[in-house]
Design brief:
138 residues, mainly alpha, DNA polymerase, domain 1, elongated, disordered N terminus, disulfide bond, transmembrane, transmembrane helix, signal, RAMP_sf
Length: 138
């Protein structure tokens, strides 16, 4: 019985499909071509606005996932990621996010912005103490 069970496990192992990377790399460019055709419908000035092409990008992603699965490859995998990165470089290389460089305000403004709340706090404390001592009038 153990021999039959082991033979069954060995047979199951032999039926396992391995990733056919060459097939996947052969099929992925069709996804890229389809995405390129869809992106021609979008003005190139709007390529950095995801809402303009999100449906096309979703179809592209589904296509790459489907082709990877047909080739018995998991998705994402390094080869598929490399292909997707190439598509990103082709279409979105000019979409860098501009980082705002923050600077401290000039010292005069900074001192004013610090002193105003400090002075208001001191004035409020003084007013509360003064009013608490003069409770007979209130």
């Amino acid at each position: 019985v153990n021999g039959l069970v082991m033979l069954g496990f060995a047979g199951a192992r032999q039926q396992t499909n391995f990733c056919n990377e060459s097939l996947m790399l052969e099929k992925l460019p069709a996804c890229g071509k389809s995405f390129e055709e869809m992106m021609k419908k979008v003005d190139s000035k709007k390529w950095c606005n995801l809402t303009e092409f999100i449906m096309y990008y979703d179809k592209f992603t589904q296509c790459t996932e489907r082709e990877a699965n047909i080739a018995s490859c998991f998705w994402p995998n390094p080869l598929a990621e490399g292909f997707i990165t190439g598509i990103h470089k082709q279409f979105f290389s000019n979409c860098t996010s501009e980082k705002v460089h923050w600077e401290d305000p000039p010292d005069e403004i900074l001192i004013t912005l610090i002193l105003i709340p400090v002075m208001l706090t001191c004035a409020m404390i003084t007013l509360v103490v003064w009013c608490s001592k003069r409770s007979d009038i209130l």
